[in-house]
Design goal:
Elements: E1 2-9, E2 12-13, E3 18-21, E4 24-27, E5 29-36, E6 41-48, H1 53-67, E7 71-76, H2 83-92, E8 95-98, H3 112-123, E9 130-131, H4 136-155
Parallel strand pairs: 1-7, 2-9, 7-8
Antiparallel strand pairs: 1-5, 3-4, 5-6
Length: about 160
């Protein structure tokens, strides 16, 4: 299977959940997805926005590795450095590549655009633009349904 890519996104939401994050009120959830190099969804996890990426990622990556035992490594953005890197390298025995932030200007970061493109595909589905779901499990399933729809549209 090769390399997979991890990324989190905070979707627009309807006011249902309010959590405290960094001293300010943030309503919502985060969507973490793991994709392959072509942008196909391997694993998805939705949780409260007050859980930091580095704390959520080890569990997400463990589940992805359970589902797809042929994974050889991961690529992630700088939000996942620290705890995640330690977990992947020491506990899982795999490689993780962290893309660095660009200081001045804008540039395409290697491999990172793949997962950003997958989020764009998912957000093109009307139901995924806002977070209408009350239960996180439902939100995860609607992401899976969106990806099924995207893949079926490619066939026809």
């Amino acid at each position: 299977m090769g390399l997979s890519i991890l990324k989190a996104q905070k979707p627009n939401i309807i006011a249902m959940i309010a959590v405290s994050m960094g001293g300010k009120k943030v309503k919502g959830r985060k969507r973490h997805i793991v994709t392959d190099i072509e942008g196909h969804l391997l694993h998805v996890k939705v949780h409260a926005a007050n859980i930091h990426d580095t704390k959520a990622a080890p569990n997400i990556l463990d589940h992805a590795k359970e589902k797809f035992s042929s994974l050889k490594g991961f690529s992630a953005d700088e939000g996942y450095k620290g705890t995640t890197v330690d977990h992947v390298e020491k506990s899982m025995g795999l490689e993780i590549e962290i893309s660095k932030k660009i200081k001045d200007g804008w540039a395409v970061l290697a491999k990172r655009w793949v997962v950003e493109r997958t989020f764009a595909w998912i957000n093109n589905c009307r139901r995924m633009v806002k977070d209408f779901e009350i239960i996180t499990c439902s939100a995860e399933n609607f992401i899976r349904i969106s990806m099924i729809q995207i893949m079926l549209d490619r066939l026809y």
